[in-house]
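REVIEWER CHECKLIST
Item 1: Sequence provided? yes
Item 2: Single chain? yes
Item 3: Sequence as submitted:
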Amino acid sequence: MTAAIPQQGSSALGFHPVPKGRRNSLFNLGWPYLLMLPTIALLVTFTLYPLVQGLMMAFFKRGVVVVPQVPSTLPQYVGFDNFLGLLSDADFQTSLVKTVVFVVIAVPLNIVASLALALLLSPQTRFFAVVRTIVFFPSMISLLIIGVSWRWLFGLNNGLVNYLLSLAGIAPVPWLEQDTMAQIAMIIAWVWAQAGFNMMIFIAGLTAISADYYEAASIDGTSKWRQFTHITLPLLRPTMAVVLVLSSIEAFKVYELVVSLTGGGPGKATVYLIQTIYDTAFQKPMQAGVAAAQSMVLFAILLLLTIVQLRLSRSQT
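Item 4: Structure as written out by the authors:
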């Protein structure tokens, strides 16, 4: 003998329909999650799935293309060998060091340039709005286009930069033909490309500072420089931290600008981490697993920077 199990909406005393108001509340409760489904599907398809697939590839010796009918292309499980191999991979270590040096130099310069532009262009007038739009414009175009433009500007014999230097009596500079100058050219072009976007972040931070602080400082006879160092900079610290982290992430991912400006040259002077990963995966046979391991190292670095950004954002709120 078995006991009857009451169904949903019913009991041992009979069926009890769910009240209409409660059904509406349940529908309203699930509606926001239903609206999130397309975003979650895109996130899973284009972010989580490639991430998991890349992590799995890092444990195999394989090429980019696997043909089941060709045994030599089948993946071979190698455990952590791809990660351990990076410890003796001179090309990977050299590109990683160059990338870190690029980040350490380019990011502070970008912050200084962005902050200077923000201080100069923050007045809310029509003229400065037009200038801000012009400065922000490079942030809206492809880095490939920016690289091609700067390649022309840095031309040795017909570039605009060397032409302006010649007017001052300075000999032509081999911007793209000499190792150190090519790295400097990369930094200049990257800072120019990123300054407009970060300028807008700094302007948002400046507008959030109450004018009462500056008015009180002016009444006390405080100089503009002391107002900047004792009011503006301390209150801009959270904004500056966010710009620092976002710029560092972008600098670690620099690739399009390298391809279009220097192509990694001269020699391998401007080959950074992303280009090394690309060359390893697509230029070397059966090295896609190694490239995946290199990508995981880059992912760990970016994840660490993202965690720092989230902690800074929480401390700001």
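Item 5: Key structural point noted by reviewer: Strands lie at 10-11, 14-15, 60-61, 76-77.
Item 6: Recommendation: ____
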